[in-house]
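To fix ideas, we quote verbatim a fold written out as tokens:
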Amino acid sequence: MKSNRREFFSSLMTGGFLATARGSLGRPSGPIKAIAFDAFAVLDPRPVFTLAEGLFPGKGADLAAAWKARQFEYTWLRTLSRRYVDFWQVTEDALVFAAKMLKLDLTEQHRARLMDAYLRIRCWPDAPGALRCLKTKGIRLAFLSNMTVKMLEAGIRNSGLGQVFDQVLSTDRVGAFKPDARAYQMGVDAFGLNREQILFVPFAGWDAAGAKAFGYPTFWVNRQNQPAEELGMMADNAGTTLEDLTRYLARMISS
């Protein structure tokens, strides 16, 4: 999988989709006025994959792994080939492929239940307090995600996070998935700020590398304790929860 990611990113950069690196590789150089979050840094997808195990006992973990891998590979391939469909369709296509690959009997009912689970996800337990803390500091907050607006708004509603986010930015706006520069540019355009004033908070290591290459200060919420991707770009800092993010920003402000 790592070699595939390296090849995908190499193709993106060669094709001119990914912006050249800007800014330092250390801490952000100026005050942070806004934060853009990848959806899964805030929303917990684990119940989707727990359901997969419930529907396919003993095979759910394999299905989840194959589904997740194809889900993001399809976003990259569709961006490279300029054949965009929204993340809901990508997710369903990836599920169908993964089930076929594993020779599982994915009935229409199974498919509907697994897809519907994406509209039922809620935030990670640490998210509400951390987000409201950031909000009280006057920092503007946004989702900047491959997910559709419907998926993002469902997660906000399920989590009781109404009025927390100033912007809900889906790549549907630009027809290109992350790490394409057009996707990251949405935050600059929506907030009307320089990219150096917007902290990007990813869930995945490849997204951390992509955001940093674009020029965003980047704090990686590495909930799965994964190693950094070997893509030539590192997040400015990292932690395992959004509480770690709030502490990081507090240290920045006080120093």
